[in-house]
Amino acid sequence: MADATPVGWRFLYSGRWIGYFTMLAIFSVACVFLGNWQFDRRAEARAEIARIDANYDAPAAPLADELSDPSAFDEDAQKWRTVEVIGEYVGDPYLARNRPGRDGVGSNLIQALRTDDGRVFFVDRGWVPIDGHEAETGGIAADELPEPPSGEVRVEARLRASEPTIPGRTSVGRTVASIELPELARLTGTEGEAYTGAYGMLISETPAGEHGVLPEKPERDEGPHLSYALQWYVFIGIACIGVGYAARREYRGLNPDSSVVREQDRRSAERKRRRGLSDAEEEDALIGG
């Protein structure tokens, strides 16, 4: 009689199960979004590796040739390119504060270089162990900072893009919140004549001067983004399996006497019986041995 009016799978149309399916859909969309985000981050990391491979060890080019437009910079084509420039360091150095280094948090030493064609190129002369608080309060003695070479100097540096403004943080005294070149041009009074698209990370100076800790070559590592991306899609599969298992359990509870459930129970009992025999045989073999 139970088979005459089986509930079947009609319970899946209930409000409760529609809610489950809705949550599954929302969870799946979120996982796809996060997975694609990780794929995008992997693509960015691979693009950075490509830039390092193409530009980091390329021969030095004259600054004026590489940056024909002082306000422009092509991140993909020019990041890490080595440029050579001849000029003279001018003015006081500035400190880009809150920069991590091997000895903790310090600052990057930024110095203006007036080139032999009259423009101003900002050079990052390395990391110094002066923390943000000390820099902001102005408690910096002149002899604490590395001295650049005086007179004409030949500089080799790697190009980096001007950094963005950090909301809520401003320049204080001789410190800046980021290496934002238009702001540095304003502070040094070189607006209209400074390179504002890119600055240079120091490689070498001739004649040599004192400088901070220079950065090492960046690692060619795309990170774990691929595994993280695939992980989010695995979570979708696990969630779908969980919902399917819950639906099957409820089906069995609502249709205990259906032919489908009886056949499933018969097969399950047969599998358990076979596993039991195998276990007994294994125990007999162990005892007999």
User: What string gives the helices and strands in order?
Assistant: HEHHEEEHEEHEHH
Q: Walk across the major sheet and give the strand order.
A: 2-3-4-7-5
What's the level 1 CATH class of the largest domain?
Mainly Beta
N→C terminal distance: 54 Å
Q: If helices are DSSP runs of H or I spanning 4 or more residues, what is the number of helices?
A: 7
**Number of domain modules:** 3
- Uncertain stretches of 5 or more adjacent residues: none
Structural class of the secondary elements?
Answer: alpha/beta
- How is the quaternary structure best described? single chain
**Mean of residue pLDDT values:** 86
Detailed description of the structure:
- This protein is an alpha/beta fold.
- The protein has 3 domains: about 5-55; about 55-205, OB fold (Dihydrolipoamide Acetyltransferase, E2P); about 255-289.
- Helices cover about 40% and strands about 20% of the residues.
- A 5-stranded mixed β-barrel has the order 2-3-4-7-5.
- α1 packs antiparallel against α6.
Short characterization:
The chain has helices at residues 15-55, 63-66, 75-78, 132-136, 181-188, 225-254, 259-288, and strands at 61-62, 82-101, 104-115, 120-128, 153-161, 175-176, 198-206. With 289 residues, it is α/β, with parallel strands linked by helices.
